[in-house]
Write a structure and sequence with these properties.
heterodimer; A: 429 residues; alpha/beta; nine-stranded mixed beta sheet; three-stranded antiparallel beta sheet; 14 helices; 36% helix; B: 467 residues; mainly alpha; two-stranded antiparallel ribbon; two-stranded antiparallel sheet; 4 strands; globular
Chain lengths: 429, 467
Amino acid sequence: MRSMTTRREFLTKGLTILAAGATAPMFLTRTALALNNPWDIGLTAAAAGRPDWPTLVVVQMGGGNDGLNTVVPFVHDEYYRARPKLAVPQQQVLRLTDELGLHPALKALKGAYDDGRLAVVQGVGYPNPNRSHFRSMEIWETADPAGTGPKSGWLGRLFDSECPDCGSSTGMTLSPEMPLAMQGNSPRTVAVADIARFGFHPVQGAGPHEIEAFRRLIQPVPGEEPLVDFLSHTEMNALVAAADLQKLAGRLAQDAGAGYPNDPFAQKLRIVAELIAAGSPTRVYFVGLGGFDTHVTQAGRHDRLLESLGGGLGAFLTDLKVKGLQDKVLLMTFSEFGRRVAENASGGTDHGTAAPMLLVGGQVKPGVHGVHPSLTDLDQGDLKYQIDFRSVYSTVLEQWLGVPSAPILGGKFDPLDVIKPHVAATVGG
Amino acid sequence: MSGALEPFVPTPSDPWDARKAAHLLRRAGFGPLPDEVTRAVAAGFDGAVDALFAFPAEPAAPPAFEDVRAAEQQLDSTLDSLRAAHEPINLKTHPELRDMYQQVGQQHGRALVAVAAWWLDRMASGPAPLQEKLVLFWHGHFTSAFADVHDAIAMFNQNQLFRRHAAGNFQHLLDGVARDPAMLLYLNNDENRKGHPNENWARELMELFTMGIGHYTEPDVKESARAWTGWSLQEFRPGDGRRTFAFRPLIHDDGPKTFLGQTGRWDGGDIMRIILAQDATPRFLAGKLAAYFVSPAPQVPLVDAMAGMLRANGYELAPVLQAVFRSRAFYQPDVALTQVKGPVEFAVGAVRHLGMTAPDWVRVYQAAGAMGQRLFFPPTVAGWHAGTLWMNAGTVFARADLAAALLSGRLGAVDDGAFPTLDAVAARLLARPLPPQRRATLAQAAGGRASKEAVHLVMTLPEYQVA
């Protein structure tokens, strides 16, 4: 109930200072709505360490990850013929099935696979693939390949449709910039570049009392212009989000060091695990890992990137298990595209199309799902996608988060069978 | 002229005064200062509007490109000599090339930051704030991102293109953009070839740059893409300088196309001509200009009147902008304080309000990025989501952090003399008087003094975020 306490504290302090007649803060007016909305965690929060809601962690592999060297089709001669320099030698592949195996840098994920915590969805893409980074990223983040819908993110629309009254940290990205995927109609997502610094900082020479002055100054004033009134509420909600995070940050310090590698990606996942464990109201986290645009000298670079990915995910999974959270968290990776089947003349690979997505957590149906795209029946040298990425999104939305996906994705996409049925939530409507 | 663009005529009972002048300068520039408002009042209404449009000659490039060119020349001459010796160009046999490629990349990255700093400085203290505000508008309209273009000089040249046509003629601007190397790279029209059309530019041209969605069909996009084949860049040749626009007939599809109901052997130029003749185009452009300069959701009659002027004047931009700034509607209460300052506008205005003449613009640039607007890195081809979407819990604090950093003096000297009293702070920084409660709370918190804390608090107020 800690978030509620924060809000109550805020209200008590705020309202006693306020002159009578001030407009009520946004979260007071939305309390009635929130009572019937299981999404509004901020007002229905469970105890620390035992979140009662499923949490989603989205990992973006920016630049276009080489799917063929991530999940390697090691029995196919075509793969070795197309990649005389870059192919992963058969004996180094960490075998998942008779046909496919992981890159040797993904040892931790092989462990997760053996433990039943990794699902690989093969050949994910979309029709008429676009090979521009920005356009394809935009397609994945808006879930709108035709580009005819609103320029908002699919997670932003999730918050818009399921949680119109949620607090300002329902979605969180651990970066200074809000990804398009999280952008919706109103601010329910928070970009936290540095969790320790997130909050209002007094100017040099002023003390903490400036924060209290700020709190009092931004109280809405009756009869205010609508925009200024909106900003008053946004600033007040920001203070609430900061107070929430500050309390969590206190717990983070006591809970450090679960064997995470010392690189930025793994450290972000560490913070995510600790926030979840601390009872954060955040439902969806977004973490980026960049540098996958391996046009030249891919060999060493891609190995290091996958080591970073595997090391981070492995430590995250171990940490979740230790914290008893592995059944509450689903992690999903995506990248704007895979890479061309044939390596190029510069020891790299060019922009391609379909690639695997990884789903990680205690409640996935482990295994390799779908059929590997043909290595001979290509479209302009690229793999033909087997599964529309929006089917993966609809799976996550309906079976993990328990919300109807059609309004968010602009249509019905058949979910996949990759989440254990006893957790798959029923969707009304 | 009557209707939505009916001119404002100052009268003794409704004069051209400081409130109106400050509103004009805020919208047409970045954080006006009291003496600038005073001068605009003294210049009279017509004089104040005319002064906004006195744009200077094109500025010279900032001295940021010498290192880029040196790194490129070193790489090019090495490649040349390898070719002359008939050696394969291969990073394995010539590992020194890798360092050279990296050098080129790093120098472009550094130069880009220098260009951003140079541009921010022009916004803050250049001779024509409106021109720079329009360059910022066009940068968010005709987006190109350095992350895809990888060429700081091309990004600068695009920035100069926007400056050259800032309030000029939209047809000329559009034509320049269609041939602009950064745009050709960003939307991949350099790869748009006969038989292998790339629709990226053809689509965004209609959707985001001219007509808006709903006024064309998918077949129109496909046919347009065919017409744009061959609008590309020169073949890359080492030592040949930057790749400039080149029409390449060999990859152009010169067959007949049917575009927006008209059939012919269309080329890119024909597509632009047909698009500019559509009713949707001046309306779309007028709507975006009105949302930027007037209100986020502008009145339909205003947009219609602006679109009519664009059409009547052959897409000349200055007349319609002048008509807006001279209109009675522009000075009405439903227009004032309806805009959320964008991060760049906030940052540049803050620097000006604090009387800083030579701040650390690189840090300011980074701070604007933390607030959600990193120049030359628009988040998508659709540009930045403006208005209330600028503000979330993270960006609220990022704004407060920049204000604190500026006030600390670490990013450059602050003119403390600009803030003699608390009321002077409010008058200099805010678009309207503080409500009595806030004035009292502020006075109590700051002990009645115009301390740095008081200035910081004013800069974090909701009313400081609006224009």
